[in-house]
Amino acid sequence: MIPTASLAIASRLAAAGCPLSSDDRLSRPPRGFEAAKGTPVADYVGWKSFTAHHPLSDAEMQSPALVDRIVDFAHTVLPLLGMGLGGGR
Asked: What is the percent of the chain where pLDDT is above 90?
């Protein structure tokens, strides 16, 4: 199951304007995760995949600072790799 630390990361990402979302969800919890129903991790264990995003305006997309914004975003979402959130666990 997704540990409490991963839930904290998801909360921090949302607060930073980079919320996690998923377009592809299971209709019920995967086998072995039935106990997650009704808990804070219930939505996450049913996701088949996820995305983290931060919208950019047209002006930001055309700005010389775009590369810096992309690097900042990568640093913001990097904790997802360390926790394995959405990594099939």
From this structure: 37
